[in-house]
């Protein structure tokens, strides 16, 4: 689970159930927590999320998500290249094993 404490601690509780200690927040707060979780799952740092939410700039959030998308695409490309190299090496090893020994 991702660390959300810095964000949660700043939110004013709507209600605490005395029997269960369950904390209740309003709909806007839970939406904000959902966005925070989503951004964390996308790989965004807590520091960047805090900056984005403090500015409350949807365009900036979109820009950061586009940047993350490009970063992910580049990571996928690099992983595919690594996978191709590994598979090529495996084929070379298989050919080596099939080569008759004099």
Write up this protein:
The protein has helices spanning 5-8, 27-41, 46-55, 58-98; strands at residues 15-16, 23-24. The protein has 102 residues and is mainly α. Strands 1-2 form a two-stranded antiparallel sheet. Strand 1 (15-16) and strand 2 (23-24) form a beta hairpin. The model has no long low-confidence stretch (mean pLDDT 84).
Which features does this protein show?
mainly alpha; 2 strands; 4 helices; elongated; two-stranded antiparallel sheet; 102 residues
The spatial strand order of the largest sheet comes to 1-2
Please count the helical segments. 4
Shape: elongated
Low-pLDDT runs: none
What's the total number of strands? 2
Largest sheet: 2 strands, antiparallel
- Beta content comes to under 5%
Helix content percent band: 55-70%
Distance between the termini: 58 Å
Helix-strand makeup class: mainly alpha
Q: Tell me the Rg in angstroms.
A: 24 Å
Mean pLDDT across all amino acids: 84
Query: H/E order of the elements?
Result: HEEHHH
What's the short story on this structure?
With 102 residues, the chain is mostly helical. It contains 4 helices and 2 strands. β1 and β2 (23-24) form a beta hairpin.
Helix/strand layout:
Elements: H1 5-8, E1 15-16, E2 23-24, H2 27-41, H3 46-55, H4 58-98
Antiparallel strand pairs: 1-2
